[in-house]
Amino acid sequence: MKRTSFFPWFLVMLLLIALIYAWFFRGADGKIPYNREAAKEHVIPFTSAIEYTKAYREAKAALQRQIQDSGYLDRNFNLPAAESFNRDIFAALLDRDSAQGIRIYLGLNEQKEVCFVMVPVDEKGNDLRGRIVDGQQVASIPGISSAYALPPIDDEAAEKGHRCPTICPSGSDLYP
């Protein structure tokens, strides 16, 4: 009778157990998986978020003074019907340490477009400042460790949604 060695079977079983464990317990760190590159599409510097929301408040106050001018809104507010964001930016916002939700402020960007500025909030409802998507590296150049389009940013917020009208849903009850 031919005896088979126990060791190869033991290795196969150990590998199988490790694969099953990895499959069922992936993401056990509690983070929502997201695509970093897709989330970067929406990331802006926190200073821009501050400027946008301030500009919105100032423009809203000016609206009350200028309402007699019928062209005022068209010249100074490009009000969208909606903005859409990919799932990855929400996952990135919610993955911030202590994040329990997302706050959306109204802002006014440089093109005079009303926009939505999003920041993660903690359990007490406080805005969380810091990085949303780590690694602002945008290019890889041989011989250079990294290249950046902008200087490193410590605080970030999310914006740059896909605006409607322009990119609008078809057949939506919200935008008929």
Largest sheet: 2 strands, antiparallel
Which structural class do the helices and strands define? alpha+beta
Distance from first to last alpha carbon? 79 Å
Q: Kindly state the mean pLDDT as a whole number? A: 75
Main-sheet strand order equals 1-7
Order of helices and strands: HHEHHEHEEEEEE
Q: Which blocks of ≥5 consecutive residues have pLDDT under 50?
A: 136-141, 143-149
| Shape assignment | elongated
The proportion of strand residues reads 15-25%
Task: List the total number of helices.
Answer: 5
Helix content: 25-40%
**Total strand count, please?**
8
Short summary:
This protein is α+β, with helices and mostly antiparallel strands and 176 residues long.
Please render the helix and strand layout as text:
Blueprint: H1 6-24, H2 36-40, E1 43-45, H3 46-66, H4 72-76, E2 82-84, H5 87-94, E3 101-108, E4 114-121, E5 137-139, E6 147-148, E7 156-158, E8 162-164
Antiparallel strand pairs: 1-7, 2-8, 3-4, 5-6
